[in-house]
Design goal:
Blueprint (H helix, E strand, L loop, with lengths): L7 H5 L2 H12 L9 E5 L7 H7 L4 E6 L2 H9 L3 E4 L11 E7 L8 H11 L5 E7 L5 H12 L13 H9 L2 E15 L4 H7 L4 H6 L2 H18 L8 E14 L1
Parallel strand pairs: 1-2, 1-4, 2-3, 4-5
Antiparallel strand pairs: 5-7, 6-7
Bound molecules: S-adenosylmethionine.
């Protein structure tokens, strides 16, 4: 199970931008009356709660490896449990599986996806979204600086390209819908790109360093990110972010 620590509050600082791909993903799910909906890697549960609103008659359950995230989700009333998606298997009544911004943390997900889809009942749908910006300046700069401390951050191999997801799922799917979107996000506040990646990408760095070392790491990374993503005259910062989506409909 992923041992990365999470800070639900910091993660939610960009809740609107992080919610947008979830809505775009859900818009392509067509199951009308699912019995059981599962959110794999639910995080703080704010988006899981939307699943209950979309399907009020479904049982909605959620899984996450982080105790902090599971607690935050439960406080929102989500039926969340601690567990590793890598060992999860669907119950026979699972008609919708959603995994939003999680599988880049799970190296075995290329094997898991066709296995999960095959284990779902006919007509069920599996919907996933993964960030695909590992070659963007934000991630390259963070990786370079982490490497100077002998820390390895994920690179572009953490996720597959869209055509690969389509091929992985097509064998067991009646149809597969795969696409990518680059959201040109407008962030506000000082060092917003550092704040963004601090709540996700940099969590393994945060875990590996003590407070003083992590503060020094951030202080070194901040000007590099400012140069790569300069603040505009109005104080806002453009932060383009590529994401890959797939919705597979079980035969
Ligand atoms: C970027 S957050 C996404 C949370 C939520 N799905 C959302 O869209 O807001 C990634 C989440 O995946 C969880 N996660 C990472 N690896 C996991 C694993 N192997 N099993 C279960 N959860 C995992 C983390 O604990 C974290 O809550």
């Amino acid at each position: 199970m992923s041992g990365t620590s999470w800070d639900p509050g910091a993660y939610l600082a960009f809740a609107d931008h992080r919610a947008r791909p979830f809505h775009d993903l859900l818009a392509r799910v067509s199951v009308s009356a699912p019995r059981h909906v599962v959110d794999l890697g639910c995080g703080p549960g704010n988006l899981t709660a939307l699943l209950g609103r979309r399907w009020p008659n479904a049982r909605v359950t959620a899984l996450d490896s982080s105790a902090e995230m599971v607690d935050a989700a439960r406080e929102r009333g989500v039926d969340a449990h601690r567990g590793d998606v890598a060992t999860w298997t669907p119950t026979p009544d699972t008609d919708v599986v959603v995994s939003n911004a999680v599988l880049h943390w799970v190296p075995s997900h290329r094997e898991l996806l066709p296995r999960w889809l095959a284990a779902l009942p006919g007509g069920a749908e599996l919907a996933l979204q993964v960030p695909a910006n590992f070659r963007s300046p934000s991630h390259v700069l963070a990786r370079e600086l982490a490497a100077e401390r002998d820390l390895v951050l994920r690179d572009g191999t953490a996720v597959a390209e869209p055509a690969e997801y389509a091929a992985l799922l097509a064998g067991v799917a009646a149809h597969v819908d795969v696409w990518e979107t680059t959201y040109v996000q407008r962030l506000t506040g000082p060092d917003p790109v550092l704040e963004w990646i601090g709540s996700t990408t940099l969590r393994p760095v945060r875990d590996a360093l003590d407070d003083a070392e992590y503060a020094a790491f951030r202080a070194e990374l901040a000007p590099r990110l400012r140069a790569a993503y300069p603040a505009q005259p109005d104080g806002t910062t453009w932060f383009p972010f590529r994401r890959i989506f797939a919705v597979a409909h079980r035969r």
